[in-house]
Amino acid sequence: IRACPVMEMIGTAIVGTVDLRDTAKFFIDAYKIGVSGGKKPEASRRRGSLVRFASPELKETDKTISNMARKRPFVMVEADATVYDVAVVLASGSHICGVKGGPPEVGGLSTIITQAMLFNFCAPKIMDLKVSIGEMMTSSVVSVKTTDSALKAFETMVNKGISAIAVVDASDGSIVHNTSTSDVKMLFAGGEDEEMKLLDTVEEFLVKLRASQTRGKTKIPVSTCQKTDSLGSVLRRMSKTGYHHVWVVNQNRNPTGVLSLTDVFRRLAGAEKEKCTIL
How far apart are CA 62 and CA 169, in angstroms? Predict the structure, then answer.
């Protein structure tokens, strides 16, 4: 789960959305506040301890889910809206879209459509689109070096407002890892004995994190493609693995772009509605 709607404590209004990108900012701010207060960084390694670590210095407004959610609107479409309408909402970068028609006690929300749900629905219908990876990808790449701290990687994501970042080799710039706001979530939802710290290098952090993921799903460290790869092959891989990002690289594995689910929806939503027959 990457995002969820938040309701008022009193009443039935939905005030906004809590997203992993927002919680990543909260955790990083909490960590930095705690360290600046003279506490040892190692205190954040235990599950659930991070908020207690910085809690005395955090303002009350910073600790409320409602305050966080109000910064990210929760968009709902009518029950008779088309798949195209949902694609337009998700093309804005939102991870979820609500559907109206539910009872008033839950703000009229009937159900939620996620980026992954819409992508898996649309993927079989768009595999054969005559669109190149180069046309659909985002050309700007945000990256950190393997020798940078994990804290710097997550701070960069927070400051750029993005949910994933490339980790490149410090010597030749080739892509080695991918890290995302999901990895921040794993850090603070992990076991009591984990030794992962934000002041480790991002490579050390990710190696420890991947080794700790023993829930039956083994993912390769980073998924890549080239501009010349067929759209269908890349979309099949995203559908099969559940990845939200595939990095576009050159022959030296230097990242030159990224293809995300948001990019896919932007391409579909950019088509004129009357011509967008696949949706």
Answer: 36
